[in-house]
Design goal:
Layout lengths: L6 E2 L1 E5 L9 E5 H12 L6 H21 L11 E2 L16 H10 L3 E4 L10 E2 L9 E2 L3 H6 L4 H9 L3 E4 L4 E2 L17 H16 L15 H13 L10 H14 L30 H14 L16 H13 L10 H20 L20 H13 L17 H13 L10 H16 L2 H4 L11
Parallel strand pairs: 1-9, 2-4, 6-7
Antiparallel strand pairs: 2-3, 5-8
Helix pairs in contact: 1-3, 2-3, 2-5, 6-8, 9-11, 12-14
Length: 465
Amino acid sequence: MADSVFIPKEMVVHLGKPDEQAENLRVPFLYYIKNVASSEIYSTWPREAIKANIYAQVSFALNRIYTEWYPSKGYNFDITSSTQFDQKFIKNRNIFSSISQIADEVFNDYLRKEGQVNPFFAQYCNGTTVTCDGLSQWGTVPLAKDGLNALEIVRSYYGNDINLVENAPFKENVPSYPGKSLKIGDFSQDVRRMQVYLNRISRNFPSIPKIPQTLGKFDEATKDAAESFQSQFNLTVDGIIGKATWYKIIYIHTSVKKLSELISEGITMSELPKQYEKPLRKGMRGGEVLTLQYFLSFIGDFDFSIPTLSQDGIFGEDTERAVRAFQAENNLLQDGIVGKKTWDSIYEVYRGIIDYISVNEPDDVLPFPGVTLKRGMNGPSVLTVQSELDYLSKFFYQIPPLNIDGYFGNKTEEAVGYFQRSFDIMPNGRVDKETWDKLNEVYREIKKGSERQKGQYPGYTLKEE
């Protein structure tokens, strides 16, 4: 799986179904999108309908690239030309000029869910002979005629939490496997990625032990988890992550998180390896600054010596002040500049908090924070809610398991709503004092584990422990 979202310069298209003997054709990504759009939709449709469809087609293709959907299964191509599996692509077909012009404008824009970083699996169908839960191609036409723009059209099908990422960067599409096996003693972001994936997979396969520290050091706990994974999936059990184990981990991780489905758990910011790229200092702005502000704000919820700051992507005085405070707390040069040492230290502290909460069940719950928790918020109170709901998901079928990352995203909102319905609270997906207190009460009682206490909740289907 890629560590970031990018527009590949080229794609390899298999001209048939996955297991069919067929030609593999390497084509530029822009040409691929123009070909698919010219094969799937009509050039006479309204401009905004065409744009909406191209957004979906780009996101679908990028999802295949990001998840390494076919390479992780052992195939030597990125996508097929079969509409049974992917998108329609016709070798040497004519490209409609109107579609070509729009594709030139938007081919490096894609859709993603709020709180997630992976390209959205934008499933679609024609809406006439074939219907599905995703976008209806023909259905986009009347919506465009009614005055909706392209983003409004896709949101009408995929939900209002769909956002548009514009001008994604270009990059050569190279395999994610680092080219050498990972083993005891290695320290790298590749190790860190495998640790995070194995921990997530272990939720669905409990025989795989949790890795307490996922900072990129290949330790004995990582070796144990790798061996258990290899045993679970009939691989050579040696505790070394070679190419076969690497891609099997990627494939199973994609499957358990449903990354290539409409209802996807998604990849959150906390799961991505955050490699140091360049110094950050006052006056700069952009995604790297926003990520820095997120980390510092999260740490500040636990360490009150870190002043509060807004997450606006602008490295101003507040951000510099927070950086200096962190540097002082961690015996670093207090220059307000985020060089490699400061960046690595910030990320290590952030990951340490996440790892501790993820591995250790919360025994002492925090008091109600005094403010209703809702989608878009983050911090220790959100971590508490996620940890308790994830624990209760082992017993209550209605409550889905959660990614414990301190960010109140769609899945957390959904789990809160299920909990509220189960206990006759208005299911608005927000955690006010009533929901907080009930959640703590149920969590404490269920964790005690006695049949008498579980019997206090008749009418609810408890999972077997």
